[in-house]
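Minutes, project check-in
Item: structure for the 181-residue chain
Input as provided by the requester:
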Amino acid sequence: MNSDSDLQIAGDILEVPHLLQPPREHPSTVAEFAGLARAIAADRSRWASLVQYDATSRWYHRLQTGPGYEVWLLSWVPGQGSGLHDHGHSSGVLTVLDGALTERTERATRALSAGAQRVFAPGYVHEVVNDTLEPAVSLHVYFPGLTEMPMLTPSLLRRTGAAPVSACAAHRGGTAEAVTA
């Protein structure tokens, strides 16, 4: 029986700094983008004072950008929705910050309350709506940054054979003039 421990054989990894990866300045994996969204959500001072509500259309504000990604803050008054859409070539993370939203896909309807987080892949088709009587606020991280958001109808969805592929978010970025979903 060998009595040598892993520490005796390999040494203490903390003593070998070149083996440790330095913390990344920007996220690059789905888990890191979800973590970024959770960190921003937890820091109300970073976003709460920026939120505005618009009775005529969803309000949105680009909160942060980085290499290959964007972070958007959206507000939804009762009755506002995104319409059925996908996110082109972008993946993303939707996190509900305040209030509640409803996500509808061909497969399911999900109630998303504050703290709920959904992740989606390119081509994911859904609609997000504020079905409540209270306003809602959400955070959307897109990677790469959102450059298109094709709007769909249920009949077009059936004709093209597009189908939801995972779980999801909503909004359109690109420029400040872009319409959000």
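Outcome recorded: Strands lie at 59-66, 69-76, 91-98, 100-104, 109-113, 117-120, 127-129, 136-143.
No further action items on this chain.
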